[in-house]
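Quality-control log, excerpt.
Job 1 of 2 completed; input and output follow.
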Amino acid sequence: MDTAVLQRLAASLRQAAQDGQPVPPLRDDLAAMGEAGAYAVQDINTQHALAAGRRLSGRKIGLTSKAVQQQLGVDAPDFGMLFADMELAPDEPVVLGRVLQPKVEAEVAVVLERDLGDTGDGPVTLARLISAIAYVLPAVEIVGSRIRHWDIRLLDTVADNASAGLYALGTRPRKLSEVDLRTCGMLMERRGEVVSLGVGAACLGHPLHAALWLARKMAEVGRPLLAGDVIMSGALGPMVTVSPGDVIDTTIAGLGTVRTAFSAA
């Protein structure tokens, strides 16, 4: 892979975030290097963030909708890194300047209490994943794109940390045994108006299918999921564009409600 190109693309994404000015799509520059090149760009910026003192708090999974996969011509999800400074405190307003071209989506957050590293006896199993989960929460991800006009394909969003922005978690943890994540309905409202509907099955058939894919992928690339990690498991319904003054209430049946309020500054 062309290291100079990778470094240049990574720097352009950092500059976009710093200046608040999205950049043109990266996919033409990454075409010859493919998905591996896009993840290499993501990793350059992950290492840059860690060197600057930021702390990983988990991972996010993108492209969990079959419709979106078909649109982008892929047959698997992608992943990005979550950092502790991306998590919003309860009732903390979202300053829209923190995220470029923001949109919101409802998700199930999975929180681990055990590591999911390689044990030498094959890929992570669903049973092992389930035993490693401490609890689940309703969550809202404020996604953003450093790519101009959200003109993204797979290579663009992978390089751009899977379009990660900020995230807000519910405050009442639930055990897996207390909720059916496959059938749980999702309702997102903007000041009482329904703006998005969904269900757990929209996320790869079940949010735990997405989490299992991630656990195996992270073990495969040598960066396993650890106790305490938050997994944003993927959207349960369509993304919604937000503007200053919006108040979004997101309810996932059996899990609870997350309110996110948006301000210009």
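Job 2 of 2 completed; input and output follow.
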Amino acid sequence: MKILIIQNTDWIKRNPAQQHHLAELLSLRGHQIRAIDFEILWRAEKKKELLSKRKVFDNVSKIHPGAGITVIRPGIIKMPLIDYASAAFSHFREIKRQIKEFAPHVIMSLGIFAYLAGKAAKKHNIPFVYYWIDVSYRLIPYKFLQPLGRLIQQRTLKMADKILTINDKLKDHVIKLGASPDRVQVLRAGIYINRFNPNACNGRRVREFYGIKNNEVVLFFMGWLYNFSGLKEVALELAQAKDHNLKLLIVGEGDAYEELNEIKVRYGLQDRLILAGKKPYEEIPNFIAAADICLLPAYPWEKIMQDIVPIKMYEYMAMKKPVIATRLPGIVKEFGEGNGVVYIDRPEDAVMKAVELWESGKIEELGSKARAFVERYSWDRITDEFERILKEAIKEKQKV
């Protein structure tokens, strides 16, 4: 199959998400994949450039060295707000160009720009799969535009031949937005059973590198550091904790990084708050192995977090680590009670709960329950299902 993917974020610099895993695994199976992305992180680059030119990146892989995704980045005007408007025009032009040059058998899109993909797919009678891994209109940085984003996504749902969501809560959400229930299917995130294998990974070197002693308890978070991630609150509680054997290890970069660094300096947490920065994906299992307890302490009132289940949850649990998470609706619905996830009401409660878990001696028991829960979600099985869905969409479109 020739598959065209459209998204409104950076394919290369953002952390691996559902679409990266699926695209690379399909590439390894011989399918041709092209992805149109958006240079959303241009502000952080601080380049003196008003207009960016179209770029093509060949043989891109973030997870599997043998995979080869062609990433096409349309040019934009690098000015706040205007960047999105210009991207809409350049993306639509690029989609039409790829339909002509690449002739995809199926188009899959995520986010707001999926509307453009849906229009082009409908015009050229190409099956269109709309994939929801989050509620994209809530991620629009300009809040006054979020109602418009919601309307655009509602209209896009009407155009989709198939709609995929990453969890049950998102499925409920898209149906409430007007999606036809018979077109909606849940395709969950997965894990690499062999890569995220607690018996094969060794966190000792990571602990040694960062000066973590055997008797010290490591709380761990990885991913993009959003301001609503709850990590600043966890760091401040760590500063107040009497137990100095607690350490917080954070892997990733993002909006909250500088403020976390300021907290580290201000409260003298140089040896207790470890900001490791961004790390290659292949190193992540060993970082998780170095932890005792993993965290997802996002603000429970943050709308963006209500319906999603980050892939990191599956990876934490695959490594037999208990997870302390705020009581987010999507997380609770996905993992329930008694499966290795322990819930808190506020991010400020994470440190106290971690101490409680450690003193209870239940870390290993909770970790085993976590691993048992996620073992059924292998990426190979999920890719089999995704491949079947795409082929089915193509077959159904040919009948029309």
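Post-run check on job 2. Residues 203 and 289 are 5 Å apart (CA to CA).
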